[in-house]
Design brief:
InterPro entries: Anti-sigma-factor_SerPK (IPR050267), HATPase_C_sf (IPR036890), HATPase_dom (IPR003594). By secondary structure, the chain is of the alpha+beta class. It is built from three helices and seven strands. Strands 1-2-3-5-4 form a five-stranded antiparallel beta sheet, with helices on one face.
Length: 151
């Protein structure tokens, strides 16, 4: 499927705001997940690196958000919850809570961190929970895209 939105940018704090504005019509969850993924690039890969943000409409009322950066080695890791005093460390946990599943696709010279979300039109009540994660509609993909009880 072709992306419905593609944004080419440099990973800077100002561009995080641009991503949120550009994705506004797609809903707050899409905005939040995309901006968190771009912020993770800034923090863990470096400010000013080229990034591509893509959003696709998937079957079944799903939206897939992908953020591609040029460092295939800097992989996201879901860590224990940040303490109340911590100034950062909640972004990936937030993405994990919002997304149906998420993961990483590695290629030569780049990686794409992605997540899938339900659109506002989808009724969550009709989708069964999974045994691995009560309240989760599907098993999440782990850091390398493998199904996992903890993403």
């Amino acid at each position: 499927m072709r992306p419905v939105v593609t944004l080419e940018l440099l990973a800077t704090p100002a561009e995080v705001s641009r991503v949120r504005r550009a994705l506004g019509p797609l809903g707050i969850d899409v905005q939040l997940c995309a901006s968190e993924l771009v912020t993770n690039v800034i923090r863990h890969v470096g400010e000013g690196v080229p990034v591509t943000v893509r959003v696709w409409e998937e079957e079944g009322g799903r939206v897939r958000v992908g953020v591609t950066d040029p460092d295939p080695r800097a992989l996201p890791v879901l860590v224990a919850a940040a303490g109340a005093e911590a100034e950062s460390g909640r972004g990936l946990a937030l993405l994990d809570a919002l997304a149906l599943r998420w993961g990483v696709e590695q290629e030569a010279g780049r990686k794409t961190v992605w997540c899938e979300l339900l659109t506002d039109a989808e009724t969550i009540a009709g989708i069964p929970d999974t045994p691995e994660r009560p309240g989760r509609r599907e098993a999440s993909a782990g850091a390398l895209g493998q199904a996992s009880a903890r993403s």
